[in-house]
Design a protein that fits this description.
By secondary structure, this protein is an all-alpha fold. It has two helices and no strands. The protein has helices at 9-25, 30-43. α1 (9-25) packs across α2 (30-43). The longest helix has 17 residues, at 9-25.
Length: 58
């Protein structure tokens, strides 16, 4: 999710942070946040070796 042939590590980490911030702003739960991240990975053809871990402190 954070790096690949067409995505640098820095750009991927920035994208992941932006997605996490937007999910928090939108009030999404952990499962919905993970779904949003995975949907984004699919949208940019980043389909191999994708793992998402979402931890939300209550």
């Amino acid at each position: 999710m954070v790096e690949g042939p067409g995505l640098t590590l820095e750009a991927g980490l920035e994208r992941a942070g932006t997605l996490a911030g937007a999910a928090l702003h939108d009030g999404l739960n952990a499962e919905e946040t993970a779904d949003r991240v995975l949907d984004t990975a699919v949208a940019v053809d980043h389909l191999d070796d994708v793992a998402v871990l979402v931890i939300r402190r209550a």
